[in-house]
Amino acid sequence: MNLEAIKSEIEANVPGCQLEIIPNTSPSAQHSLLVDSAHALTVASFLRDGATVRLDYCSNVTGIDWPVKEVSTKTKVKKIVDGVEKDVDEVVKTQTGGYLEAVYHLYSMEQRQGPVILRMRTEDRTDRVHLPSFTPLWRSADFQEREIFDLFGIIFDGHPDLRRLLMWEGFVDHPMRRDYVDPDDYEYEPTAHDEVLKRAREHQSAEGGL
Amino acid sequence: MSVLTETTVALSSDPTTDPNASQLLEVSMGPQHPSTHGVFRMDVALDGEQVVKLKPVFGYLHRNHEKIAESQNYLGCMPYTDRLDYICSITNNWAYALAVETLAGIKVPERAEYLRVITGELTRLQNHASLIGFLMQDMGTSGTPLMYAFREREKILDLFEALTGARMMCNYMRFGGCRVDAPAGWLQQTQKVIDAFPKFLDEFESLLRTNEILMARTQGVGRVSRELAINAGLTGPMARASGVNYDLRKVDSYGIYDRFSFRVPLGEFGDVYDRYMIRLLEMRESVEILKQAMRDIPSGPIMDPGTKIRGFRPKAGEAYGRIEAPKGELGFYLISDGTGNPYRFRVRPPSLINLTVLEDMCLGRNVADIVIILGSVDIVLGEVDR
What we know:
The structure holds 2 protein chains of 2 kinds. Chain A is an alpha/beta fold. Helices cover 22% and strands 33% of the residues of chain A. Chain A has a 5-stranded mixed β-sheet with strand order 1-2-7-6-3, covered by helices on one side. A two-stranded antiparallel ribbon of chain A has the order 4-5. In chain A, strands 8-9 form a two-stranded parallel ribbon. The radius of gyration of chain B is 22 Å and the shape is globular. The A-B interface holds A 24-28, 30, 56-60, 62, 64, 103, 105, 109, 112, 115, 117, 138-144, 151, 163-169, 175-176 and B 1, 58-59, 62, 64, 66-67, 102-105, 228, 230-234, 244, 246, 251, 314-320, 322, 329, 331, 333, 335-336, 344, 346, 348, 352-353, 355-357, 385-386.
């Protein structure tokens, strides 16, 4: 099972899709395949039904937050300063990240092969956070995509029941984002504490208490 | 949101014409309910006694384990994994250790691999035994089978205590090996427990297997087809009861599982009875593995000397490691950015994903069956909610 072979097989069968192999330099050597979100559903359904690796089992769905990060690399450049040639450090700043990512670990139960790792990236981290849902293909993605929607804020288009999974209804933020700020009051719940307290005060003051 | 507001189901009889027609009734089962095995809620819509809609509600035990792990170093994450599936802390340790070992390319010494298999299979024995006990309790056997199961579980927990110092939160494994070696006499004591275990299994099986009430309550209840099991990502005994031949000990042969001969029991009908029988048969296979491991265990070091577990900084990259935990495929997905803390730490919880088909299994069944069906999934809320 070779990722290059799978990539060329997909390219031959799904016209117009953009694929990129993301190399993994660690000893695990689990390389992954970046799919453009416009063709992702077609690619995934091809991998499930049409490809020679029949990936019938979606094991794991992960959300990852990559905020914008500035990476500066120093290079020595020869420059003429005051008529004398000198080695000068030149700092080149490049920006990476600035998107949310969904990673799918796909296996074949039939052929006992895997994992084939698919990645999808959103356009940014604020409002263009839509990705196609794989739940219509693999139901095992159902709760996991809901969890990513809840904790990361990726909106999966085509998910049959996209609600928060772990946080409560009415919670606003996405706690697994890297820039998430903890609330001052962890116990805060959207209940009518203040109104109840006010009513209790009025009631008790009428009886001469408090 | 109430399940009733989003339910569009036809009632069994039309209330405008039939004066005895029933209305849909919404019942909130849980979160504080003994049969939910923790704090877990199901919003159920009922037509008379029959389930027409069921929505599981999660999050009562959510503490964002994954976020906590991102603020810890790699070694500091290990004790937190105990708290995922708190019945089987050792297999949780193993899955995490395996993921880190895959990430950093660490080799584990022989003796440590054997100790992992022995403690891992003992964990499987006590998980399956107590699960069957819980299942009987859910059916209303008032504790006797549960206490028999707990009696055996106690013996295994005593072994864990002698080995690791803790009965449930064992924190036993490290990436590159195990934390402590077996103390003097521990292996002999373990051998005694293993030798006595088949007798308990015979007794347990004869107590319950031919019981007519048990068969009537479980056979044909909560069926999952093979296709649905694969598509919904079911793993472990849940999948194998539906006839899916997928055991990671055979498929991945992680650790040293390719050295042992054992069989993978498969079910035919995918009902509650099959899931219960699969667990009984798996315990027998685990005993076989344990006998072979106890016979072959070599002496030697238990930690890889080249691995520095304190101040551990793997190279940037990512790895997904998975094992056959008693409840199914437990996986850890780690992303390293070269620092001492994992950049991303993802747990693939088998019990959460096995719950995907809960509604499918319960539709059309009675309320009393929900309890048994949920019991047969084998969930631990520490892992479902993380």
